[in-house]
């Protein structure tokens, strides 16, 4: 029996990873980490071991990681000193003898100097810390999710307005990326591997807008806007300025080609092509 622990199991990505693991391994082999285990009652009822742990509380992590063979670290949230939290997870895993660490990182272009504040630096430092841990490590560099591309309210009102230029990205659905992570965790042969998990094609914002138009049955138009315009629109929607700048940085990264590389890693893990933009927006429209 191999015990597989998923952190962030109450979050959007981690929750789906556990759901996909349930299709591949016995429920009793899965350990779901939560700050508040009550949120994962439904998993507990299916036989998943739900354990309490906080990235900021190393002792709680050691208790939760006892007996775990494989651990998936889902990154901590932006604006929360994520690197310290990741360090706590990695150190606790080492202390209790976890055998294999997996980490959800972010796709970036080779030799890139693009900075997404609160994200890219931590991803680099966390990957380095994992490699220095001496444990077998598997890195999953996820592309940007389709799910986070449109900004609901603003897209409804004004179309897709972003400072992404004509940059393309090999975006994928969070659901496919979660299934890819579950496929890695549920099988062997991934130690020491670095996967860049992307969709099967790189599309620009105009193509995303077209896919959304088809799904909605009414035209969604993409217009490139300046960073200042995008930030002002987010502030008007109620986002604090640092968050508005943070959101803009993702689209500036798209413009710079940060997510443009297409790989077949995700397709191989899924055993089928990942969802395209058309598939994704059509399905989410009817979800
Ligand atoms: N590639 C992309 O496009 C993209 C987009 C968005 C995010 N991301 C990255 O992917 C990660 C996961 O995304 P997501 O959508 O699943 O985020 P999410 O829904 O915000 O989930 C974050 C998870 O982390 C847990 N967490 C936060 N602080 C914690 C702490 N101190 N100790 C233990 N657990 C803690 C949360 O638990 P609670 O329920 O207790 O709060 C939650 O389960 C994000 O953190 C971000 O780094 C990538």
What would your notes on this structure say?
Helices cover 44% and strands 15% of the residues. It is an alpha/beta fold and 287 residues long. The radius of gyration is 19 Å and the shape is globular. NADP nicotinamide-adenine-dinucleotide phosphate is lined by residues 8, 10-14, 34-36, 54-56, 74-77, 85, 106, 142, 144-145, 148. Residues 8, 10-14, 34-36, 54-56, 74-77, 85, 106, 142, 144-145, 148 line the site of NADP nicotinamide-adenine-dinucleotide phosphate.
Give a brief description.
By secondary structure, this protein is of the alpha/beta class. The protein has helices spanning 12-22, 41-45, 58-65, 82-96, 120-132, 152-158, 174-185, 205-216, 227-237, 241-255, 265-270, 277-286, and strands at residues 4-6, 30-34, 49-52, 70-73, 100-106, 137-142, 160-162, 168-169, 194-197, 203-204, 222-224.
CATH topology of the domain at 4-142 and 172-197 and 262-271: Rossmann fold
Small molecules bound in the structure, each named once: NADP nicotinamide-adenine-dinucleotide phosphate
Shape: globular
Q: Average pLDDT across residues?
A: 94
Major sheet: size, sense and barrel closure? 7 strands, parallel
Counting DSSP H or I runs of 4 or more residues, the number of helices is 12
Query: Helicity range of the residues?
Result: 40-55%
Task: Please trace the helix and strand order, writing H or E for each element.
Answer: EHEHEHEHEHEHEEHEEHEHHHH
Instruction: Give the percentage of residues in beta strands.
Output: 5-15%
CATH architecture term of the domain at 4-142 and 172-197 and 262-271? 3-Layer(aba) Sandwich
Task: Tell me how many strands there are.
Answer: 11
**Order of strands across the main sheet:** 3-2-1-4-5-6-9
């Amino acid at each position: 029996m191999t015990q597989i622990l998923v952190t962030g199991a109450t979050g959007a990505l981690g929750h789906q990873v556990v759901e996909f693991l349930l299709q591949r391994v016995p429920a009793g082999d899965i350990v779901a980490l939560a700050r508040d285990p009550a949120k994962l009652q439904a998993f507990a009822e299916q036989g998943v071991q739900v354990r309490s742990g906080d990235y900021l509380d190393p002792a709680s992590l050691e208790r939760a990681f006892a007996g775990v063979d494989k651990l998936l670290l889902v990154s901590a949230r932006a604006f929360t000193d994520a690197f310290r939290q990741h360090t706590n997870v990695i150190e606790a895993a080492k202390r209790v003898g976890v055998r294999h660490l997996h980490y959800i990182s972010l796709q970036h272009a080779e030799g890139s100097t693009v900075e997404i504040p609160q994200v890219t630096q931590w991803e680099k430092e966390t990957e380095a810390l994992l490699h220095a841990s001496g444990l077998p490590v598997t890195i999953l560099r996820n592309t940007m999710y389709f799910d986070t591309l449109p900004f609901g309210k603003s897209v409804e009102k004004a179309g897709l307005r972003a400072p992404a230029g004509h940059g393309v990205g090999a975006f994928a659905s969070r659901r496919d990326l979660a299934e890819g992570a579950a496929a890695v965790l549920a099988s062997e042969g991934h130690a020491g591997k670095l996967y860049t998990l992307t969709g099967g094609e790189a599309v620009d914002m105009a193509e995303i807008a077209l896919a959304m138009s088809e799904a909605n049955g009414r035209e969604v138009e993409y217009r490139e806007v300046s960073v200042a315009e995008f930030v002002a629109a987010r502030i008007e929607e109620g986002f604090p300025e640092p968050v508005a700048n943070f959101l803009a940085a993702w689209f500036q990264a798209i413009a710079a080609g940060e997510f443009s590389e297409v790989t077949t890693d995700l397709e191989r893990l899924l055993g089928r092509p990942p969802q395209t933009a058309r598939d994704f927006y059509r399905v989410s429209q009817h979800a």
